[in-house]
Description:
Blueprint: H1 3-13, H2 15-20, H3 31-40, H4 53-72, H5 79-83, H6 85-110, H7 115-123, H8 127-136, H9 142-161
Amino acid sequence: MTFSTLALVTALGLLGPLLAAKRSWHLPLILGPMLAGVVFGATGFRVLDATEPTFAFLADIGFAIVMFVAGTHVPVRDPAVRSALGSGAIRAAAVGVIAAVLGTALAAAFDTGHAALYAVLMASSSAAVVLPVINDNHLTGKPVLALTAQVAIADTVCVVALPL
Length: 164
């Protein structure tokens, strides 16, 4: 990876804060880098090559950092969150069952044989997106606590299940 490519990736990473700066738009920080990846990656101009080994390394580091930051948003010692673990676990299990059925149906419909992968991707709640949105919008209440627990449980299970 050249220095100019690394500089481009860094500059594109700033799109998130730029798009989220206008509070009335209610856009999450993750939207800017995701759009930049689509536009400059394999779908768009093909300036950035996802198969580059340095990208794989940066992606692994980035994923670890995102999950670490997402984990810091889950107040597991908060008694209110602990009380919502039961309903969050039930919701996460229900989403997992639905994802397994839909993953199987998609794999059969497109004859790919990747039912488990589809199910894991659908069951994942992306704490990196959900939890910052909850915090940025100052959402509270029992449903939000159950959602926080659901997201934490679903993402933990999916991160463990994905390599399998």
